[in-house]
């Protein structure tokens, strides 16, 4: 039986930081109790993969198999798994949901008491790993490791999706699109007729623009230092574009002049602490809501108390709140959610270093890698 067999397959291994990934033959152990082994059909490259490879200062997080934005098919299941069976189309998720704890039962959050006990946050890797190469244990990045033909994840970190869903498109829902869209709709709670600003127009920022549009925002100001990105932002609903490089004064002052005092909602998707502060200061002082979405953990973020006491709200969002992955997939199938427009490049897993270079050079929105045939 396959669920008792070690699978030998290809994976892109990050042996050390700041070095190209290396295609290796790895061993994927059978799923243990409550685990699911998945054949990865498609995976995308997300900036969080680059963050760990290039910016995270903890070298103990290597060797690792990166990748966390993917879709695939269940290959086998471990003991006690009843919700999934071989052949199911699924999306692995880096933020698991036990469904039982007080956080999971609350509509206020997508955090889970047990989820982070399975992840070494400083290593950005799961406590357990079923992956190895030549006898050496490989970390499983964020518990997923989708730059591999096969991976093993806990059943609470798997979402079953519509069998008609095209995996090379809906893989984006596994991180970036849900993160940005949900930050606007669930975390900021953008209201109809409002004015919004989105800082950083990568896939997450563009998804935030799409979320603002879906929520009924009247004006959506896209902010980025790369002018070429505005045409893409317009596709998702942006009405204005501001390039901070075109101005000799702080961007918050520029936006304040454009909006009679500041935007109602600002969403930071750049992962830069100075942009987080600018986004906060760009929303109206009396009721503005600013959401931090971009991930970084190497610098403190600072702001003067006066920026908050008059009534601004500053909050964070991980994975878009309770977006509901199966529902997002259905929205795409119903043509209520854009995905195809995010995909600028298609490659295969063995071209992953080229895909990483494209993202480093800001020459792509999302590159989708074909991993296995369905």
Kindly describe this structure:
The protein is of the alpha/beta class and about 375 residues long. It contains ten helices and 21 strands. It has helices at about 45-55, 165-170, 175-190, 205-215, 230-235, 250-260, 275-280, 305-310, 325-335, 350-360, and strands spanning about 5-15, 20-30, 35-45, 65, 70-75, 90, 120, 125, 130-135, 135, 140, 150-155, 160, 195-200, 220-225, 240, 265-270, 290, 315, 345-350, 365-370. The strands form five sheets. Strands 3, 5, 6, 12, 13, 20 and 21 form a seven-stranded mixed sheet that branches. The protein has a six-stranded parallel sheet with strand order 16-15-14-17-18-19, with helices on both faces. The chain is globular. The mean pLDDT is about 95. Keywords: Metal-binding, NAD, Oxidoreductase, Zinc. It holds the Pfam family ADH_N. Its cofactor is Zn(2+).
Structure, briefly:
This is Alcohol dehydrogenase 1-like. Helices cover 23% and strands 25% of the residues.
